[in-house]
Automatic annotation (TrEMBL):
Residues 87-123 form the FAD-binding domain. It comes from Schistosoma curassoni. This is FAD_binding_3 domain-containing protein. Pfam families: FAD_binding_3. Signal peptide: none annotated. One of its GO terms (molecular function) is FAD binding.
Length: 148
């Protein structure tokens, strides 16, 4: 397969990944995309991110996404993904807040596992807020994290 054919295949795999709506199809598309790009297995997710961005930089859809992600990753607040390097985090629920929390923690260098009961993803979320409910647990959590 020539280079043009390889990139066309990666572009199609990227489009399938972006349009997937079920958890199983998202994972399958991601693994298929990585199989075509990632040269060797790695535990560092940033290596996968780098290889995907390098191989898909000529595809306009991927380039737009990766430029936003790279800009975010390079922010000084993330300390080159070393601040939470030795922390394992379990995020329960992958709604807008759970997903944002997981992404931010990963950007800080934490190893994040997400548990979600839904099998499909959509853009329709109904956030529920409870006044005062999160204030005490979040304060306690940040205190415990800083103490360790």
């Amino acid at each position: 397969m020539n280079v043009t054919g390889l990139h066309r295949g990666l572009e199609e795999k990227f489009d399938l990944f972006c349009s997937a709506t079920t958890f199983e199809s998202i994972l399958a598309c991601f693994y298929e995309l990585c199989d075509g790009v990632v040269s060797k297995p790695t535990k560092q997710s940033w290596n996968i991110f780098h290889e995907l961005s390098v191989n898909l930089k000529s595809y306009w859809k991927a380039a737009a996404l990766f430029s936003k992600l790279e800009k975010r990753v390079k922010m000084k607040q993330y300390h080159h993904q070393t601040l939470c390097r030795d922390i394992n985090v379990l995020v329960i629920g992958c709604g807008p807040c759970g997903m944002r929390c997981a992404i931010e923690l990963a950007l800080l260098g934490a190893r994040v596992i997400i548990i979600e009961k839904r099998h499909t993803f959509s853009r329709f979320f109904v956030p529920q807020t409870y006044s005062g409910f999160f204030q005490a647990p979040c304060t306690l959590l940040s205190t415990l994290t800083m103490a360790n």
